[in-house]
Design goal:
58% helix, elongated, 4 helices, two-stranded antiparallel ribbon
Length: 97
């Protein structure tokens, strides 16, 4: 069985999900659009956009980052990846000086 919009349908020729990670089951079988609430996804996307447009040294970025750290935890994988991207950009900038 799998969710498809507002309906539930049977999966044909399904090899099984034994051993799959929970996130894969939720995304592939239950067809969830994401694993987080839309508001958190939007805030993370905003942080990423700020990093890729080199606006990570702003007060706005710091405020949003701290808010997310308080909500989803400092050790969250997405926040860690954002911090890693910032470190890469800072290192790149240092080598170009």
């Amino acid at each position: 069985m799998a969710r498809d919009g507002q309906t539930i349908r049977a999966i044909k020729n399904f090899a099984g999900s034994y051993g799959w990670r929970v996130d894969r089951i939720l995304l592939e079988i239950f067809r969830l659009e994401g694993l987080r609430t839309p508001l958190i996804d939007k805030k993370l996307a905003t942080l990423r956009d700020m990093v890729f447009s080199d606006r990570y040294a702003t007060v706005e970025f710091a405020k949003l980052e701290k808010e997310l750290e308080a909500t989803i935890g400092y050790d969250d994988m997405d926040l860690a990846l954002i911090r890693l991207e910032i470190a890469k950009r800072k290192a790149r900038d240092e080598t170009h000086r």
